Amino acid sequence: MAASLMNRAVSRTETFGAFRLSLNLLRHFSSPAAASPAAENPSSDPIKAKRRKSKKNLIEVAQFLPNWGIGYHMAKAHWNGVSYEITKINLYKDGRHGKAWGIVHKDGLRAAEAPKKISGVHKRCWKYIPNLSKTTPATAPQVEAA
């Protein structure tokens, strides 16, 4: 009688062991890593995933421009035809935050005469507008052809 109980116990563990083994095999072969051999070794992958640009606040964009961006145009990424010409920046001690003032420009033309405080300076969506950057007066006089 003890032998028959032992045989039953062994057959149950073998059944569960075989079931567990089949689940592990199924899990292994259905994973995406098993489907593509290049996924196992990412250094041999010829096409690398494109790195996402990190978004910056206005101060982080301005720090790379001469004179902290004063006189340059910046806008939020989702704005169309609207930008600010930066006139003043007050930095906090950490150098990554602060306040900024500027003159609003719409479609490249001034929309206001007086600078106003720029709202949303710390939001991470600012970009530099290079084609509207510092306008310098022409140093050479224009000569008309006779």
From TrEMBL:
One of its GO terms (cellular component) is mitochondrion. Transmembrane segments: none annotated. GO terms for molecular function: structural constituent of ribosome. It holds the Pfam family MRP-S34. InterPro entries: Ribosomal_mS34. This is Mitochondrial 28S ribosomal protein S34. It comes from Brassica campestris (Field mustard).
